[in-house]
Amino acid sequence: MPYEERAREAAAWAREHGFRPAARDERRVCLVLIDVQNTFCTPGFELVVEGAVDDNRRLCEFVYANLGLITQIVATLDTHQAFQIFHAAFLVDGDRRHPEPYTLVSAADVEAGRWRVSDEACETLGIEPEYARRHLERYARTLEAGGKFALTVWPYHALLGGIGHALVSAVEEAIFFHGAARSSQADFQIKGRHPLTEHYSALGPEVTTGPDGTTLVEKNRALVEKLRSFDAVVVAGQAKSHCVAWTLEDLLREAPDIAERLYLLEDCTSPVAGTGLVDFTAEADAAFERFAAAGAHVVRSTDPVLAWPGILGAAKARA
User: What is the CATH number of the domain that holds 302?
Assistant: First the structure.
């Protein structure tokens, strides 16, 4: 992307339309973009969500149409390496064969010895095999007890340093243009690097402690408090059934008071579906119904923002 050219264009656009620096906004609006990365959004990559291309076209149009209303953009980045608990290199069966992508690993499978942590994973991560065994057993049980999805072996994806990890180019360009036009520094939130836990939600891992009770990753309470400080929080990204839904679940659990200031762009997010192996459309729709019942607003990017329910009173309510 020609950053210098875009910066000049953004500055000219700001002058033409009389934009003030975002720090002076009376109504502070945060746009949260969940994992809008090539690995999930660009055809040919590892875990592409069907519908993501059109979602991101609408998302870019939304950003440009509302440059003067969006105070700050927060973008999360799913961030992985090869040896992580949900990648094939981490696990082997009794014949030392790695699992195929989309294999479901149950607690019963682990306890029966069908799957174990590979010797190579233990060596490269510096963990003792006995600790690895106890961690994997407890991890699978904890996931099942939480009522979410079983431990799933995902294709290698969002690998740090690779192009799959990068934001979709058009979205990254829109974020940069917004920052230059509004004098607003985008906030990029890295998640998912710890090898022993999954991190669907931007606000915290699925399992927070190891088998001995030691903390793996803390909840991102700083991000919760940051979002609470805004008059309106608009959420989009991928996938509706996984990282978007679980981020919203965590946010509403940690800060239920934010519900009436929460706006979900239903036409800028899609569920994991259409792979022929899994379809989480029903789960995604049910999650959004729960969020709406809690007070969140399900809206469309093409609707005028100032016509969204409650948006005009947001600044007054937070004053």
Answer: 3.40.50.850
- Tell me, what amino acid is at 10? A
116, containing H or E segment: strand 116-117
Q: Residues 303, 250: one domain?
A: yes
Boundary-marking domain end, from 130, 152, 174: 152
The DSSP secondary structure of 272-293, one letter per residue, reads: S--SSS---HHHHHHHHHHHHH
- The answer to whether the beta carbons of residues 244 and 267 sit under 8 Å apart is no
Q: Are residues 284 and 135 in the same domain?
A: no
Phi, psi of 232 (to 5 degrees): -150, 140
139 lies in the same domain as 181: no
pTM above 0.90, yes or no: yes
- Based on the fold, state whether residues 71 and 202 are members of the same structural domain: yes
**Largest Cα–Cα separation, the chain:** 67
Cis upstream peptide for 239 (omega within 30°)? yes
The tens digit of pLDDT for each residue in 176-223 reads 999 999 999 999 999 999 999 999 999 999 999 999 999 999 999 999
Q: Residue 265: what are its φ and ψ, rounded to 5°?
A: -80, 90
Model pLDDT for residues 146-162, shown as the tens digit of each residue = 877 789 999 999 999 99
In whole angstroms, give the CA distance from residue 72 to residue 247: 18
CA–CA dist 75, 186 (Å, integer): 8
Strands 297-299 and 151-152, sheet pairing: unpaired
What distance, in Å, lies between the first and last C-alpha atoms of the chain? Answer: 39
Does 105 lie in the same domain as 58?
no
Q: How many domains does the chain have?
A: 2
The arithmetic mean of pLDDT across residues 224-253, rounded, is: 97
Domain interval for residue 306: 3-80+160-318
Q: For residue 138, give the H/E element and its range.
A: helix 129-145
- Regarding whether 306 and 224 lie in a shared domain, the answer is yes
DSSP character at residue 19: P
Q: Give the tens place of pLDDT for each residue, 121-147.
A: 999 999 999 999 999 999 999 999 987
